[in-house]
Amino acid sequence: xxxxxxxxxxxxxxxxxxxxxxxxxxxxxxxxxxxxxxxxxxxxxxxxxxxxxxxxxxxxxxxxxxxxxxxxxxxxxxxxx
Length: 81
Fold this sequence. Notes:
Blueprint: H1 2-22, E1 25-33, E2 38-45, H2 46-49, H3 53-68, E3 74-77
Parallel strand pairs: 2-3
Antiparallel strand pairs: 1-2
């Protein structure tokens, strides 16, 4: 089950990736923790240093993943990795 959710999260990220790339950024999937329902990602490129990156993450990426995969998933930006 967790593998299916992880694949769905990756598919959702790949679906929204072009929007981030259009602005000079990108997103990388790191992992999905099924127990906590946390999807760890890394914003890169222009997104990594953008002051609006948290807004992009919650109102864009997380909202899309919650709509298409699971409404309880939280997306966490692990930029320190």
